Amino acid sequence: MREDVRPGAVRPGVGAAYGRTSSGSFPEAFGAGADWERASRPRDRPPRESASMPHPYVLLSAAVSLDGYLDDTGPERLLLSSPADFDRVDEVRASVDAILVGAGTIRADNPRLLVNSPQRRAARVAAGRAEYPLKVAVSASGELDPRARFWHTGGEKVLCTTDEGARRARKAGIAADVVSLGTALDWGALLEHLHDVRGVRRLMVEGGGTVHTQLLQQELADEMQLVLAPLFVGDPRAPRLFGPGAYQGGRLRLVETRAIEDVVLMRYEPTAPGTADRVVPADRHWLRLACELAAQCPPSRTAFSVGAVVVAADGTELARGHSREAGDPAAHAEEAALAKVDPADPRLAGATVYSSLEPCARRSSRPRPCARLILDAGVRRVVTAWREPDTFVEDADGAGVLTAGGVKVVVVPEFEEAAKGPNRHLLGREGVEEG
Ligand SMILES: NC(=O)c1ccc[n+]([C@@H]2O[C@H](COP(=O)([O-])OP(=O)(O)OC[C@H]3O[C@@H](n4cnc5c(N)ncnc54)[C@H](OP(=O)(O)O)[C@@H]3O)[C@@H](O)[C@H]2O)c1
């Protein structure tokens, strides 16, 4: 129970919440009064919810013709952007920790991939960063020209490749740090490497189509910056931006459009939730929104402020809600959101509920706690930022209830502080009166 306070429900004499974290540790002993929800709690093992692995923020950047091509088939690189847009790209490059391209782009374009503006480079140095972003090349074969400009311009370079590719690249004398990621290259492992070993927090991906397609289809892209150029290629042999395959079902979110001379920049974000315990960039967006909704709740001294969003598998927002919505002092966020969805809506079965705080397992103000409402709605995935502390009730375990009911619960701890933000005044309290 997170908002309704019953006398005796508060854990007495304990100042801090017990140490449940995403990696999980439960207290050994529980208080009295187990009920059906608590009976389902995994008492002697870590919680079964999952946590996400850290990746850099991945920004895909490309320019396309009106008929969707990245290039033509001529020997020279087709210039799609306008001068002012090349300058914008330079600015984006200056803002990131690393720029990645596929081997096909190195072979076709022989690019340098530099920050061209001396002022931007100076600003990077003044900020304590490397003058140039790390340059990352991706190749399975390792068949790369050691004379390519990519290896001889800018700052540090790394080639991410396979065992076989590494052997070839080293033999060819590629002037880069050659990293083998095994017999085949896995994008998740590559991103983890860049994050953990290279310290990359923002990654700009500059193509080509094979690379963009995989990152988008594997739901590893946070954002797409697409420039539409007012010309046609008209040659089916030319490379397209996105190849065939499985993409997210629904519509992406348009976050910006900008006319730059005669081209238009469009920025899109994916919207489709991850599946099971896999956290994708869209999950972070929706959880961030839930935390923003929590901040909009009417303040209370006797209840948490929580935000919730229900999102269909194709990324369509079905409903949102927050605590004490519409003047109802007992309203819970998940309850308020689910009440706006037709219970017969078939999309509920594939939906994800995002809640800034773990859904409640017990409450006195309504017959069904939010964990039960979620189970009854048929939703099979919940993503939350914060396990419920003992502020109002001891050992509330909505995640356990949900998990026992077959729901995958995922905790994304990077949003815990945002979820706590509107509730600071409640934390550390040892007890409250029923309000
Ligand atoms: N308009 C624009 O904004 C823009 C930007 C960039 C590029 N382009 C154009 O795009 C074209 C090149 O695109 P592209 O699709 O042919 O090539 P690409 O995406 O640049 O590179 C593909 C290559 O990357 C490596 N690779 C990709 N995925 C991999 C994986 N999962 N594991 C291991 N290696 C992997 C492979 O290298 P190996 O073959 O070495 O194994 C693969 O052949 C060029 O015509 C270029 O001009 C346009």
Automatic annotation (TrEMBL):
<dbReference type="InterPro" id="IPR024072">
    <property type="entry name" value="DHFR-like_dom_sf"/>
</dbReference>
<dbReference type="InterPro" id="IPR002125">
    <property type="entry name" value="CMP_dCMP_dom"/>
</dbReference>
<dbReference type="InterPro" id="IPR002734">
    <property type="entry name" value="RibDG_C"/>
</dbReference>
<feature type="domain" description="CMP/dCMP-type deaminase">
    <location>
        <begin position="281"/>
        <end position="395"/>
    </location>
</feature>
<feature type="compositionally biased region" description="Basic and acidic residues">
    <location>
        <begin position="35"/>
        <end position="48"/>
    </location>
</feature>
<keyword id="KW-0560">Oxidoreductase</keyword>
<feature type="region of interest" description="Disordered">
    <location>
        <begin position="1"/>
        <end position="54"/>
    </location>
</feature>
<dbReference type="InterPro" id="IPR050765">
    <property type="entry name" value="Riboflavin_Biosynth_HTPR"/>
</dbReference>
<protein>
    <recommendedName>
        <fullName>Riboflavin biosynthesis protein RibD</fullName>
        <ecNumber>3.5.4.26</ecNumber>
    </recommendedName>
</protein>
<dbReference type="Pfam" id="PF01872">
    <property type="entry name" value="RibD_C"/>
</dbReference>
<comment type="similarity">
    <text>In the C-terminal section; belongs to the HTP reductase family.</text>
</comment>
<dbReference type="Pfam" id="PF00383">
    <property type="entry name" value="dCMP_cyt_deam_1"/>
</dbReference>
<comment type="function">
    <text>Converts 2,5-diamino-6-(ribosylamino)-4(3h)-pyrimidinone 5'-phosphate into 5-amino-6-(ribosylamino)-2,4(1h,3h)-pyrimidinedione 5'-phosphate.</text>
</comment>
<comment type="similarity">
    <text>In the N-terminal section; belongs to the cytidine and deoxycytidylate deaminase family.</text>
</comment>
<comment type="pathway">
    <text>Cofactor biosynthesis; riboflavin biosynthesis; 5-amino-6-(D-ribitylamino)uracil from GTP: step 2/4.</text>
</comment>
<keyword id="KW-0521">NADP</keyword>
<dbReference type="InterPro" id="IPR016193">
    <property type="entry name" value="Cytidine_deaminase-like"/>
</dbReference>
